[in-house]
Each structure stands twice: as C-alpha cells, then as structure tokens.
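Human: Respectfully, please carefully check these tokens:
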Amino acid sequence: MNRVKEWTAALDADIAEQPGFMRDSVVLTCGSDLTPEPYRWLWQYWLAMGKLHILAGAPGQGKTTIALAMAATITIGGRWPDGSRCAPGNVLIWSGEDDPADTLVPRLMAAGADRARCFFIEGARRDGEVVPFDPARDLGQLLEAIEKIGGISLLVIDPVVSAVTGDSHKNTEVRRALQPLVDLAAKCDCAVLGITHFAKGGQGTDPAQRVVGSVAFTAVARVVMVAAKVKGDEEGQDTRILARSKSNIGPDDGGFQYHLEQSEPLPGIHASHIAWGKAVEGTARELLTDPDDGPQDEGAGSAKEAAEEFLLELLKDGATATKHIQEQAKEAGISWATVRRASDALGVKKRPSNGSWYWQLPHLLKQVAQLAQRSETEQVEQVSEQVAFVTEVL
C-alpha cells in the first residue's frame, strides 16, 4: 500500500512539472488590491448597470407597458419620470407572453421608441433548427449576438420565470436559474429587468413578499419594483403607482404615479403607453394599499377621524417634515397608513424641499385649526361647523 502511495505521489509530481499544468486551487483576492467603485446608474436608484432587477404586480397593472416605457426612454436618450436624462442605448427583449409584431413594437412606438435600437430574442439555433432560448445553455451565443449589435443597456425578461427550467418555488433551483442572468448583466454591463406577478392574497403585507414563486426572485435581485392600483383622492378614482419595494444599493422607498393611455402610433394600430404623474413618498407597503381589500372594519372610521384631528393639530403652524409626523404618529399609536388616508381626506399638500418631504394644510384648514386652538367654549360649535364644511368641500 505504501508503495502505491509513493508511486501516485511521484506521478503527481511528474504531471505538475508538465508545461501549462495548473493545479486546482482556491483563488483569493486581498481587499487592499481592490479599488472601491460606485454603482453606475442607468436610471438613478431605479436601474443599475450590471445588476438584476424585478418588476412585480397584479395582472392588469401595465407591468410590461412600464418596462417598454423604460426601454423606449433608453433608445431615444429621453427623460425619466424624475426629469433626469438617460444615455441612449440598445434594448433587448425576451418575451414569452406577447408577440413582438402585434403587441410589443406598437407599444414601443406609442412610447416614442427608436425601433432601430430594439431587439427581440426569438429563440436559439441548434443543429440548424430554431429551438426555445435557454439562458443557461445559450448564454455564450447570446453574448456574441449582443456584441454584434454593439451592446445593450437593458434586457427585459417577461416573465422572468421563463428563465427557470425547474421548480420556480424552490429556492436552490431559482437561484441556479437566475445566475446566468446575473452573469449576463455583469458581462454586458447592462441592467436586467425581470417581470413577474403577485401571488394571490397577501394584501397589507410587504409587497416584495407577495412576489409569486420562491423568495430567491427578490433575494437575488438588487432592486425590486412593484406596480399596483390604489385609491385616488376622489371617490371612485383609481391611481396606479410604481414604487421601490426593496433595494440593496440605494433608497428603498418612493415612487411615481402613472396611468395607462391608448394611442394609434400607425393607422389601424392601437397600443397602450404609460403617462407618468407626480413623484410620491413613502414605502411600497404604505403606497400600494389595494383598493379591493374590501370594507374597512367598524373602527376604521373613528381611527381615520382621530388621525385627521392629529394632523390638524400637528400641521396648524405650517409645513412639517414627514419624518417628524411619522415619529409623532408612532408615539400617538396611529398607523402610518391611517395617517396617509387622513391626509388625503384633508387635502394635505406634500412637497419636497432640500432633500426632505414636508406636509402642509390647505390655507383655509390651517386658519380653522388655529382658530380651534384658541377658541373659547362658546366658539367650539362654530369651529366644528367650519371644519365640517371644509372637509365636505375637499
């Protein structure tokens, strides 16, 4: 036995001396040899170069149309919803749900895209035949194709579960399936945006936890965006909001209102596109209250009224920082969702200033709140009538 070990050791030594031989080993890098680099953004805090992103939401919220609006902005070097300018670039779309000719291209045109910068993955050629594209198998060929068109800035995958050949509810299989997309993002220096759905139920929970399938979808992605319909300020009015639900590389709150519009980019060709609205503040859980959650419980009305009184008192002297309002609401035992509903009912104005957000009462309500503070007993009834009148008008 000892002679066999000696013979094996001698053989290993001879092989190691052969030209070009490299023994298997672990590769380490010292931190002092690395130069810190900032994240590079395609859209500041929303789309990062070289990273995987997820866009989730319930059916019918325009997720694909949002992704195509982003793609269109990139192809023309347009402006993002926050007004910042985007560098022009190519986009690549892999869709397993919509036909490029009758759905995707019309929507891109409706969004003002440069079609010459839009490309679509139709499949992969293997042994002379076109077969379904598989990122794990066809990544090398895809990288070559991307290099031929001059690189891309964005890859849209709709739905992202198309990249998972195994069980999309198993963490290990999803992570393994998403790794080629992570590698592609890094090698092509592009943003990868995967689209997916919300699971049924779960209203009121963290939107990132409602993403259908394994938690690996949101864990692997660096930024998770969610789109949903919420109740508008007016009775019966619905508003849609795109919000950040998770970010490992930037702010994880805030969003933009949007709604879907129809247009006719070519005679007889009808398509939807995104019309962006104002910026909104708050976490995704606060912003994306499902309008179909059902009736509120019996205490909801009194809770909202208490929140209205709380805001009237807190904002009577002028604009107040949102963070201060949140702190005071927490001390008062009032949920932030209730405070936001009360602010909508009162018509509270919300404006950014010097990097922070401030809330302010409408002028008339501010006067009423100040009068209520200094009123005597005989004035209480008059003040109450004024508050009721203003609330009804709003």
Notes: The chain has a mean pLDDT of 82. The chain has two domains: 41-287, 298-393. The chain is about 35% helix and 25% strand.
